[in-house]
Amino acid sequence: MGILHKLATGLIKTLPPEAAHNAALRALSLGLGPKHSCDHNVLKTELAGLSLPNPIGLAAGFDKDAQVPDAMLAAGFGFVECGSVTPLPQAGNPKPRLFRLPEDQAVINRMGFNNKGLDNFAKNLKSQKSKSGIVGANLGANKDSTDRAADYMTGLAAVWGLADYFTINVSSPNTPGLRDLQGGEALEDLLGRISEARQNLTGDQPSPPIFLKVAPDLDFAQIERITEQARTYGMSGIIISNTTIARPAHLKSAHKTETGGLSGQPLMRPSTRILAEFYAASAGHIPLIGVGGIASGRDAYVKIRAGASAVQLYSALVYKGPSLAAEICDDLAARLKADGFTNVSEAVGTVEP
Predict the structure, then answer these.
(1) Strand ranges (DSSP E) for the chain?
(2) Is 54 within a domain?
(3) Nearest C-alpha neighbor of 99 from the set 242, 257, 243
């Protein structure tokens, strides 16, 4: 990390968490972010038909309104996921709603899908400067919606042709009742409607990938059912996982009891276990994206060997800044080569769950 970016990251961390986040977005929008090229042939890979320069993605939540996808691609991310975005703008939950847990290298948030809505999101995607990187749209449902499944159809239609892939986020713990959409009949209905909408929007043309993002708080029976339903309805992959409502006993930080979703280092182990269980349930037949606790090349490598074709991170940026993507790329490339792998795909699922 350059000295200026180290200083900027340190300064931003002195601000309250949400103010720091907004300041970071502003700096990135002004072109003040790091510029790194992750040019390692061993990291080039395919994900559900997407050609990625590297498998390190930016998770949803950082850039809710698609303000800075170019800046994050320039920082070294192989793909960037913007959102979550809902059909109508919403303010989200009352503040404070974002908490650093520095002793645990973690974050708790109860943001509540705060965003400026689909019209603004689509406008920002249209004005994306580079048009050269992979940018996805993470779709959510409005808190007061009377038909949340319909909100996802609205999202697909509004951003179709503007995003390289879509994520159906039914796993945020901060919108009451949203995780109910992961249930059997509710998920069956939702995925059926998505499949129909996809066919109507695609026509005779190839469809962009559509992923399903799930919670880490699932048992194996739920994992098997979700995997079967995702495959039945032609989902392109599963993102594992969102934040957790669990609170490990080893948490030390003052904000450890705050309500919301926990992310960061404490999520690494449980989310990787769930990832491995999804890989076992799918027998490797549906691409998986591993999220939760990634802060190093080693962490990314563990996820990949547990079954992830690609990974995403966000919370570690709070502590290490946007140059982290390039650092992870370099470390991951070295680890793959040291173990004799010639590309990322060879390493996927090579550790028994």
Answers:
(1) 45-47, 50-52, 56-58, 79-85, 98-101, 106-109, 134-139, 165-169, 210-214, 237-240, 261-264, 288-291, 310-313
(2) yes
(3) 257
Report, as residue numbers or ranges, the catalytic residues. 172
In a domain, 130, yes or no: yes
CA atoms within a 13 Å half-sphere pointing along the CA-CB vector of 125: 27
Residue 353 counted as domain residue: no
User: Domain with 271 in it: what CATH number?
Assistant: 3.20.20.70
Number of domains making up the chain:
1
Give the residue numbers spanning the domain of 178: 3-347
Q: Quick check: 42 and 343 in contact, CB under 8 A?
A: yes
With beta carbons less than 8 A apart as the criterion, state whether 347 and 339 touch: yes
352 inside domain: no
Whether the full predicted model's pTM is greater than 0.90, yes or no, is yes
Q: What is the pLDDT along the chain (353 residues), one digit of tens a residue?
A: 454 455 456 556 679 999 999 999 999 999 999 999 888 999 999 999 999 999 999 999 999 999 999 999 999 999 999 999 999 999 999 999 999 999 999 999 999 999 999 999 999 999 987 678 999 999 999 999 999 999 999 999 999 999 999 999 999 999 999 999 998 899 999 999 999 999 999 988 899 999 999 999 999 999 999 999 999 999 999 999 999 999 999 999 999 999 999 999 999 999 999 999 999 999 999 999 999 999 999 999 999 999 999 999 999 999 999 999 999 999 999 999 999 999 999 999 998 65
